[in-house]
Amino acid sequence: MHSAIKLTVSHAPFCHNGSRISAKSYNIMLASMLAVVPGFYFYGLPAVAAAALAVGSAMAWELVFNLISRRPVSIGDGNAALIGLLAAMLLPATVPWWIVVIATFIAVIIGKQIFGGIGANPFNPVAVAMAILLVSWPDYLDFNTALVHYQFDFEPVTYPLLMVKSFGADAVETMNWMDLLMGRQVGGIGTTFGIGLLIAGVYLMVRGYIRWEISLSFLAGIIITAFIFNKIDPESYAGPVFHIVTGYTLIGAFMLATEDSSSPVNFIPMLLYGALGGAFTILIRNVGLHVDGVIFAVLVMNMVNPLIDKIRPKAVGKVA
Amino acid sequence: MMKRSFFGIFKPKLEYDVIDDIKGEPLVVSPQKKITLFIDQAYEKISDVALKVGDSVKRGQKLALTPGSDRYALAGRSGRIAGISPFIGISGEPKTAVDIDLSDEGRQEDDADFKNSSKPPTLKNARDFLEGLPGKPEFDVFSDPGKSIRAIVVIGVDADLYGVANQYFVKNNIISIKTGIDILRKITGVLDVVLVVPQHLVQTAGTAGAIVKTVDSRYPAAHPRLIMRHFQEEAVRGGAAAGKKSDFAVFNAESVATLGAAYNTGRLPLEKTLLFVSKDGNKRLASVLIGTPLKDVLNAFGETLNQGDRVIFGGPMTGVSVYSDQHPVTADTDTIIIQDSSQIMEQPGTPCINCGECVRVCPTNVPVNLLIRFLEAGQYEEAAGQYDLYSCIDCGFCAYVCESRIPIFQYIKLAKHTLDRMNAAEVTHA
């Protein structure tokens, strides 16, 4: 049964829906531009420089690790670039260059590569980086000091979450949620323009690049918990809408909590993961030590993810 | 149809092909010089070999390696045996390939064995002659003392995408199916017969004298193992089999129709109906004699093969790619797909990123994302024990949607195969 022509022999299935990791990474980055470009507009060249350095250094770290560990070069999948971009979005525009480089080092090398690269990281790499930075160099990440030399056309030029934490809900009563959503607030490069993040989130959910169950339940967790706190003590705790449009909430819901490797894949676990993450965020913001809780809430939920992802439907035909 | 939808929020859908969309009558493809038949038995030099090179073979003759063996092939043309050689199947099954040089069209002789022994139809003559028919009917279950057959399930749908062979018989040959069902009832004594058809063939199927059930038009609803699961669950719910195992005998509509025709005419119809998909995606029906080499089929359709092309026997999800243009059409070749080398997608070796697409499309709720980690590490026993390896019905949907393009289906098949071999070895050495 010999043949003169050499045919390709491979395994089933012989067709594929065409999805690939790079398409997902690039789509998330593209969608993030809706929030990043307004950030560039608000904060000018320093923001552009920080974002460019973050993306570039993240890819460089990935390449360096690929070469040192003698593994296939994986910067083509876009994941390192995405990590860099997300890290930059969370940072204030005037952050020193070495903080950016350290952030991407922690994210790419410590957060992802030492666990075995893409898909093997138990924690969201960007959240790991931000958590370490927040603990190690809190001064450089303080939005009030970082942005003190900027001239803004809105009042007050103080980080809204810090105000509500220090002075109670009354202090932010003058803030209009529409203004906050339009980016008229102090914050990270890519975290203040809420409208952009919302559109990006809807786009990514509809395209199936992020799991809508996680994003929506995260937001629901925030709303419900904030509502309860607000009902109990309206003077100290701000309402749910305020919490949605400030801090890292929207970027957390759409881009941090939904990171593939560190989040569940089954339906009920996804809802639980999201809702508990949202609730944790508000708990940390309202009664915890930190000003914003998204990063730590995401990390805590990453930690319990393998456990809650065990809640899954019984396989068909399984006896026990 | 094969691409990811723009709106990824919905589950991917793969619709089965519908026979009504395939225009034209089947193209009859005749073998030119030779045919190759497979016997499901290892080729060993044994003393009382029934087949020798040079033996002449008549049309419809039963070919077995040893006299009286229940593993045999049926020759569709008369001729002379040109070669007998061992052949290894896709997962290592030992087979024997028998090459037959065909005699001229005018000098065809019919073998009378089946005709003489087929009246009246019995389970014995069905087992002795009909297991090589198109669609591969199997009669072993009826004589298995450990099984009590509750009903016969005739599958009038096709397991894989592009498959239309069974639908074709339901649509065009329901009378033969009815005859076949009546004969099956008579020879097995099982009176309950269920005919499973796609929605659009319900009316035609109603005339077959069996209970008609329909399946969804989305892959993998028509997968035989899913259909059987459904029947078994129904039997358990019905309570009829409380404490007692109830089994089903499964037949393809094609095999029931050819069985009916065989008993009616006393001749064995050995033409396999299949769908030929050419490089440009054109789908055409063909009626090909079992054993006809791929080359003759290609010539009949005017298709040429180049270096690096891929030929798939069976559907796009679960088929097998062959390595030679001499590979023969067998009794279960429902589809032949020719892919140009430019259509073949590369498989980058990225690890699982845990996106969960596979988990969401799995028809049997297997945690594929966890399973694949154990399979990649070769820990098959853990995979079977904790991660539901044996719930998998081999539909290949997980590998189709995999963003990392991991050959999940191949890993699963390898694991099942390895475990089977380990268990078999344990049994023999126990």
Could you explain the architecture of this structure?
The complex is a heterodimer of chains A (320) and B (430). Chain A folds into 2 domains: 21-136, no CATH class; 159-308, no CATH class. Helix content of chain A is 59%, strand content 0%. Chain A contains 14 helices and no strands. Chain A has helices at residues 21-43, 45-68, 79-90, 97-112, 125-136, 143-146, 160-167, 177-181, 194-207, 212-232, 240-245, 249-256, 267-287, 294-308. In chain A, helix 1 (21-43) packs parallel to helix 3, helix 9 packs parallel to helix 12 (249-256) and helix 10 (212-232) packs parallel to helix 13 (267-287). Chain B has 430 residues and is of the alpha/beta class. Chain B folds into 4 domains: 29-111, no CATH class; 123-265, 3-Layer(aba) Sandwich (Rossmann fold), CATH 3.40.50; 270-343, Ubiquitin-like (UB roll), CATH 3.10.20.90; 357-429, no CATH class. In chain B, the strands form 4 sheets. Chain B has a 6-stranded mixed beta sheet, with helices on one face. The longest helix of chain B has 22 residues, at 408-429. Chain B is globular. The model of chain B has no long low-confidence stretch (mean pLDDT 88). Chains A and B meet through helix 9 of A and strand 14, strand 15, helix 10, helix 13 and helix 14 of B.
Keywords:
heterodimer; A: 320 residues; 2 domains; globular; B: 430 residues; alpha/beta; 6-stranded mixed sheet; 4-stranded antiparallel sheet; 14 helices; 16 strands
